[in-house]
Write a structure and sequence with these properties.
This protein has 69 residues and is mainly beta. The protein has one helix and seven strands. It has a single domain, classed as SH3 type barrels (Roll), CATH 2.30.30. 10% of the residues lie in helices and 51% in strands.
Length: 69
C-alpha cells in the first residue's frame, strides 16, 4: 500500500517538489542548485526543507523557471 501524499502547496497555491541544495540566500530569496540548474527563488513562492533536501515551488513559478518541464 502506498501512503497518501497530499499535493504540495505554498501559501495555498499548488506547488511542485524538487530536489534542492541551498547555495546561498538573502533577505528575499534562496539561491538553489535544483538538480544541476542554479536558480534564485523568492522566499514567498517556496517552502524549503533543508533536512529532506527538497523545495516546494509554486507551480506557476516553477513552469516559468523551467518551461520545458
Amino acid at each position: 500500500m502506498i501512503p497518501y501524499q497530499a499535493q504540495p502547496s505554498v501559501n495555498g497555491k499548488p506547488a511542485i517538489r524538487v530536489n534542492a541544495k541551498e547555495l546561498t540566500k538573502n533577505e528575499k530569496a534562496f539561491y538553489f542548485d535544483l538538480d544541476g540548474d542554479k536558480r534564485w527563488v523568492p522566499k514567498s513562492l517556496c517552502s524549503f526543507n533543508k533536512e529532506a533536501g527538497t523545495v516546494d515551488i509554486q507551480e506557476w513559478f516553477y513552469k516559468m523557471l523551467f518551461p520545458n518541464g
